[in-house]
TrEMBL record, chain B:
Residues 25-203 form the Spore germination protein N-terminal domain. Pfam families: Spore_GerAC (PF05504), Spore_GerAC_N (PF25198). Keywords: Germination, Lipoprotein, Membrane, Palmitate, Signal. Its main location: membrane. The keyword Signal applies. This is Ger(X)C family spore germination protein. PANTHER family: SPORE GERMINATION PROTEIN B3 (PTHR35789). The lineage of its organism: Bacteria, Bacillati, Bacillota, Bacilli, Bacillales. It comes from the Bacteria. Residues 227-393 form the Spore germination GerAC-like C-terminal domain.
Length: 531, 408
């Protein structure tokens, strides 16, 4: 089946240049021969910056050097041991003093500075940029080229277990805020030259490094092209989290459903790469974006692929049931008990009626209020410092759960409904998909309270129509159910055993669709004698 | 811009929907008077009296909530009965509503009880509303109240159930009735030419009629029992009753019985034996002999011997064959007797024999149907029972018998 790729232009009109963009007229200049002039210029550029240090060194009593770096971004130990000590104690190698061939800069690169990453720079602008990145700039008197030494050594968090995506079985490492640590975690898992990582910088001030990672030959070329295009179009002052980028590159910004997946887990990124998806790393955040996202990806937990498939399939079915509950239970309850009492089993209706006796508010308002309070509790639980968080949950459980029911302000059945719905909404593995359903629950409730089941059905229709029309980077959101790809349905409702999933997801992959060769189902082989 | 206009249009389409439909059709469950059992009685001037057993939800709730702690205070019933009298049912309902603070909600009705007086007058004039009103269930079960009014029945408490109306339903299920759909079956048999409705009968009191009635004048009567089956004619008028045992056999012939225990006497006073059947079937074959119509009823049943008060050793096959024959004869005789009784006393085809001819010999039925009741009275019926004893329990002879007294 051929699905036409449809991309929505997500930029309206030509982006204008930001009038507040930093002035770069100084930085286009080249490095001057006179060190003092360079120094003056750099000091002017870095004026009022107490964290930028200038250090003058004289080697062998004649060659003056100026070191420029950001305090805290450069590894101070390395700076001492690898750069300063050899230069100050040993001086230049002998043949340089005899006026040997080549510049001092070349000599330094070749003989003296024992650091892996050293590159020359002629532009003042380049020097400024590198220094801000954490490199050490080395300006040499009498030469028009400076050296940029990669001595980055800032404080970073250790690799820890991701807190947002837990699993019982599976690797325990999670991404950190350091981009290169993150990409290395991927490299360690996919040791193939086909794993490509394209870099770009975004943010006029933040100059955040972004890496687009994909597997060449597996990722679909057209999706990749679209990702590149959308990323390059972004003009923003700073990128502090991958969410900044997500909002610029998603297809339908007004949809409640997330169209780009995010994860803290390197194994999730790797499996997505192997499925032909594209990962977008953003420096300074542990959350990596994965595009394109399908609806079903939001319902797949990492562990689905690590645990045995029978149990996993069972859990998936439960998850689908809970998904429906999280969206529909309150609205069904409201519409059934206020419009269609004849549809409720008699004994249940009597219980509900008994619980409602003396409750002052209409069921819709009551349910809306309780849902509102539940969201409040949840929000308070997340934002508050941990020691206070438990206090909130106690107050919530006691005040709302018990006191309100006993006082006859809220009926017990509504509390049960709201609590069940809350639990169900937490069973959705991807947090951002869960929020979509949590949000949609409120309009559904209002529809149920005004139109009854008719409203609920109308709401479901609107949501389904929206989902069917939604695309993520040109891939229909509901793939492989609509459009249907029978081979890929093995990983939707259930999780088929790995040896039976022969193909990669069709739409997001390029030419290389084959994943697992057939005939690998374990079991006694015919014709083989089992001794 | 277009998307803005589109969303404006959608909003324009949805907002009137919210205003026109819904909202005021909604009603909270605590603004409804839930009624689970319904009674219809005859009133003066061809009028109708309707009664409803309305649930008091919070009494049920509190009985469950503070179980055990509810010792003090009077144990109030979780239901009460209201009645209304009118020219027809709806007129009566309107009058009844004046006594209720909440809107009558009838969609959960499970039981309809018809007083004997009204049943004898005929059901035709009161049935229409039960099939016309979309909020009513056609699956409500219909009972005939023997020797009283439905209103009396609804006032009687039942020890096991909170809501006594439902108890009638459950009692009836316990006798092994299958395929019971009450109202809808009543409608079906009322429209057919051949058969006449037979409805279950309920009577107040656990013991036989009028024993515990009026002990100290107040309504101290507790409980009720299924007490046979009522036989109606084609005009839906009550003709009379057959007892519960006969009612079961009637259902067996119609193929609507789920379980039955048959007890047979063993000749020469050698004790009795009980056979518990749970797979019951029947087959009715009409046979035409000139102008005479004969029906051959074949009944089959499978089951287990659960009581053996004789000295027979049931592990012996000849003993089993003997018992089987005995049981079959017993069944044949009692079914034959029941059919004859109905033929003679009521002449109303509650066995659906006419329907069998209608199905199998359609052309003959056209000439028979106008005078079917007379033909039914005349028809000769033979009954053949095929019982199979599948299990005999865990012992052959009774354990308490001495070895030498066991008949091998």
């Amino acid at each position: 089946m051929k699905i036409p790729m449809r991309y929505k232009s997500n930029h309206k009109g030509v982006p204008r240049t930001n009038p507040a963009a930093p002035d770069r007229s100084d930085q286009a200049r080249e490095v001057d021969v006179a060190l003092s002039r360079n120094e003056r210029m750099l000091k002017q550029i870095f004026s009022n910056s107490s964290d930028i240090l200038f250090r003058s060194v004289t080697i062998s009593g004649q060659t003056r050097l100026l070191l420029v770096y950001v305090d805290g971004l450069v590894n101070a130990d390395m700076l001492d041991q690898v750069v300063l000590q050899p230069m100050m104690f040993e001086g230049l190698p002998g043949d340089a003093e005899n006026g040997g061939s080549g510049s001092i800069g070349d000599l330094l690169i070749k003989r003296l500075v024992a650091v892996a990453q050293v590159k020359p720079a002629q532009q003042i602008g380049d020097i400024v940029e590198s220094v801000l990145k954490g490199d050490l700039a080395m300006l040499i008197d009498g030469e028009t080229q400076a050296l940029l030494v990669g001595l980055q050594g800032y404080e970073k968090r250790a690799i820890e277990e991701p807190s947002a995506e837990l699993s019982v079985r599976g690797p325990r490492d999670g991404f950190t805020e350091a981009l290169r640590t993150n990409t290395s975690l991927i490299r360690r898992r996919i040791r193939s030259e086909k794993l490509k990582m394209e870099s770009l910088t975004l943010g006029q001030y933040s100059k955040t490094e972004i890496v687009i990672a994909y597997l060449e030959g597996i990722a679909s070329e057209s999706v990749l092209k679209e990702v590149r295009q959308r990323l390059h179009r972004i003009e923003i002052d700073g990128v502090l989290e991958s969410g900044y980028i997500e909002e610029f590159i998603e297809d339908v910004p007004w949809s409640p459903f997330p169209q780009i997946q995010n994860t803290e887990r390197p194994d999730v990124v790797c499996s997505s790469l192997l499925e032909g998806k594209i990962a977008i790393f953003v420096d300074n955040t542990p959350f990596v974006l994965i595009a394109p996202m399908t609806f079903w990806a939001g319902l797949q937990a990492v562990e689905d692929y690590y645990e045995r498939f029978i149990y996993t399939s069972f859990i998936r079915l439960i998850r689908f049931a809970l998904l429906n509950i999280s969206l529909l239970l309150p609205s069904l309850f409201v519409s059934l008990t206020t419009f269609h009492q004849q549809l409720v089993p008699t004994n249940l209706l009597i219980s509900v009626a008994a619980a409602r006796e003396g409750v002052p508010l209409p069921t819709v308002i009551e349910t809306l209020l309780m849902e509102f309070m539940f969201e409040g509790l949840r929000e308070a639980g997340i934002r508050l410092p941990k020691p206070i968080g438990s206090a909130v949950s106690i107050v919530g459980a006691l005040v709302i759960g018990q006191a309100a029911v006993q006082a006859g302000i809220v009926s017990a059945s509504v509390v049960i409904i709201v609590a069940t719905t809350g639990i169900a909404s937490f069973a959705i593995p991807r947090y951002n998909l869960g929020t979509a359903f949590r949000l949609l629950r409120f309009p559904m409730l209002i529809l149920a309270g005004t139109l009854g089941l008719y409203g609920v059905i109308a709401g479901i229709f609107l949501i389904v129509i929206h989902l069917l029309g939604l695309r993520s980077f040109g891939i229909p959101y509901m793939t492989p159910i609509s459009p249907q790809f029978p081979e890929n349905i093995k990983d939707v409702w259930i999780r088929a055993p790995r040896w039976s999933m022969h193909q990669r997801p069709v739409l997001s992959t390029g030419s290389n669709k084959h994943r697992v060769p057939e005939g690998q189902q374990p079991g006694p082989k015919r014709g083989e004698k089992n001794e | 811009m277009t998307s803005l206009r589109k969303s404006g249009l959608i909003l324009f389409a949805i907002v009137p929907l919210l205003l026109t439909a819904g909202c005021w059709d909604s009603s909270e469950v605590n603004d409804l008077a839930l009624e689970l059992a319904w009674g219809i009685d005859a009133a003066k001037d061809q009028g109708v009296m309707v009664s409803a057993q309305v649930i008091v939800p919070f009494r049920i709730g509190s009985a469950q909530g503070s179980a055990g702690g509810g010792g003090g205070g009077s144990q109030e019933k979780p239901y009460f009965v209201v009645a209304g009298i009118g020219k027809d049912t709806l007129d009566a309902v309107q009058q009844m509503q004046t006594k209720l603070s909440r809107q009558m909600f009838r969609a959960h009705r499970r039981v309809i009880v018809i007083g004997e007086a009204l049943a004898r007058r005929g059901l035709k004039e009161v049935l229409d509303t039960y099939s016309r009103d979309p909020t009513l269930k056609l699956r409500s079960d219909v009972f005939i109240m023997k020797g009283g009014t439905a209103n009396e029945f609804l006032k009687v408490a039942y020890p096991l159930e909170d809501i006594p109306g439902l108890a009638a339903l459950k009692e009836y299920n316990q006798i092994g009735a299958l395929k019971e759909m009450g109202l809808i079956n009543l409608m079906i048999s009322a429209t057919s030419d051949g058969n006449c409705p037979a409805l279950p009968v309920i009577a107040i009191g656990f013991e036989s009629d009028k024993q515990e009635e009026d002990q100290d004048g107040s309504a101290r009567m507790k409980g009720f029992r299924i007490n046979g089956t009522s036989i109606f004619d084609n005009d839906l008028k009550l003709l009379g009753y057959i007892d519960t045992r006969e009612g079961r056999l009637l259902r067996w012939v119609k193929g609507e019985l789920g379980k039955l225990i048959v007890t047979a006497d063993i000749p020469q006073d050698k004790g009795r034996i009980s056979f518990d059947m749970n797979k019951l079937n029947s087959k009715v074959q009409p046979i035409f002999q000139g102008d005479n119509i004969k029906f051959h009823v074949t009944l089959s049943g499978q089951g287990m011997i659960r009581e053996n008060n004789s000295n027979l050793d049931l592990t012996q096959t000849h003993n089993l064959a003997f018992i089987k024959e005995l049981l079959e004869k017993q069944v044949e005789a009692s079914v034959q007797q029941t059919i004859r009784k109905v033929q003679r006393e009521f002449g109303s085809d509650v066995f659906e024999f006419g329907e069998t001819i209608h199905r199998k010999h359609h052309s003959r039925w056209n000439s028979l149907k106008d005078d079917w009741n007379q033909e039914f009275r005349k028809a000769e019926v033979t009954v053949k029972a095929n019982l199979s004893i599948r299990r005999i329990g865990v012992t052959g002879p009774s354990l308490h018998l001495k070895e030498d007294s066991i008949q091998k």
